[in-house]
Amino acid sequence: EEDILFHGTGGTPPSIIYNSKEGIDRKFTTRGLYGYGSYFATKSGYSCNSSFVYQENDIYKVLACRVCIGNYTTKDKLDKRTESILEVNPATNLRYDSVTDHLKDVEDRE
Question: Could you report the per-residue pLDDT of 50-105, keeping only the tens digit for each?
Fold first, then answer.
């Protein structure tokens, strides 16, 4: 399953990311609610909280990305452990690819 999701690039100009061979690379994540990983939002306004700001003209930029969501699980925001994506989904016998805390947003896409 693919969807268009939004990604804030923090202090990195978006052009550096979309012109690179690596693209969005989770090893550059310095913080996050669920630990290291690439974070995406269903609403662009949420990603504006971590957007790149061009100071000279006060323009905020985020990336709109085509994301393969894969096999996902839900997780409470208060649970900061990352083990749940390493667990095996009993229905598929595969590990999870993604974590969401908004199951309603996932259901709205289906």
Answer: 777 777 778 888 889 998 888 887 776 656 555 555 678 888 888 877 777 765 55
Q: Hey, where are the domains in the chain?
A: 2-70+103-109
**What b-and-e string marks burial along 16-55, b requiring 16 or more CB atoms within 10 Å of the CB?**
ebeeeeeebeeeeeeeeebeeebbbbbebeebeebbbeee
Instruction: Count CA atoms closer than 13 A to 6's CA, side-chain side.
Output: 17
Question: Is the distance from CB of 6 to CB of 46 less than 8 angstroms?
Answer: yes
Contact 83, 95 (CB under 8 A): no
CA gap 45, 48 in Å, rounded: 5
CB contact at 8 A, 12 and 50: no
pLDDT tens-digit map of 3-15: 899 988 888 888 8
